[in-house]
């Protein structure tokens, strides 16, 4: 009994649902965390190796992210345990079955995440009438295509840069995980004068202190290539990205990639967290003591979910960019100022902001 409720605290999770459909081989888990502000929004991740605890932590991160962004939504997350690279028809079957299974869980609105995309959300919407991050052809704002999250990461970086002693024009940027978030973060930061000096994917790292051609790297990835196939730059293994000196180091791959045992390899001033929970608590404390400013995930990478919320409430691409810009700049500034004025970590400042908003929403609800 106690073990089943091992994650329970003052905020949630409201429910944890295990889904199993033996005929299809569908195994999934859904965590709906806190819904005081409104129905939860959170990604559907397809991966073979995510624990219930990781799913809960991701759902909680969505609670804080949605609250910190000031959205009328709580936080949730789901995982379908499967290989995201499976055959397309099999994937469609699995996602449609998952959608039907969560049909009655109306306080959860599915969105895209690692291993799923707009097309997958189209299948979910087709089955149960609700999902965000839809294909444009059925009224969605294709957030990965337009780079909503990367746009927000770049906005947060610009506001936080002076607090970290970084000048954006000419700043050297490293991106770990050159996917949807990583590529667009690099692209929008380059528009502000920053230079990409290294990037990594699951196969390896490419680096060049004089700068890499971002558009050429994006074209390489879009054609199915790996960064280590790039025609220029020095090549290294996946973890070599940790060792590249820079001003801004952007994690945009997976959780817990930087820990106490490898944080000493980072040589940077500012870390806008593009991925969800990419660093352990210990790693963030060590960086704080070293004077490195970390913009917490749920502040820096809220662009995607803000875009999803704008879409859910009937907005368009232009209004999404406007809302992302205003909210992320405002929230990042509040967090940086509280960090400086109260001498606390940026995560503590951001959590204070989010908690204040969730607690205010909970006072309006009968059951919390
Ligand atoms: P993606 O699948 O498009 O890209 C992930 C990239 O990371 C790929 O290039 C992959 O090769 C690389 N990768 C995987 N393991 C790696 C490793 N160990 N080292 C280096 N690279 C590695 O995914 P995405 O949508 O860009 O999401 C990345 C992260 O950002 C995830 O944690 C996701 O939850 C989070 N996130 C995404 C969004 C969004 O809008 N897409 C929004 C908020 C948060």
TrEMBL record:
Keyword Repeat in annotation: no
Domain Glutamate/phenylalanine/leucine/valine/L-tryptophan dehydrogenase C-terminal: 140-366
TM region(s), chain numbering: none
Residues reported in the UniProt entry to bind NAD(+): 149
UniProt signal peptide: none
Example GO molecular function: nucleotide binding
Residues binding substrate, per UniProt: 65
GO terms for biological process, alphabetical: L-glutamate catabolic process
Keyword Endoplasmic reticulum listed: no
Family: Belongs to the Glu/Leu/Phe/Val dehydrogenases family.
Name used for this protein in its record: Glutamate dehydrogenase
Organism: Microbaculum marinisediminis
Organism taxonomic ancestry: Bacteria, Pseudomonadati, Pseudomonadota, Alphaproteobacteria, Hyphomicrobiales
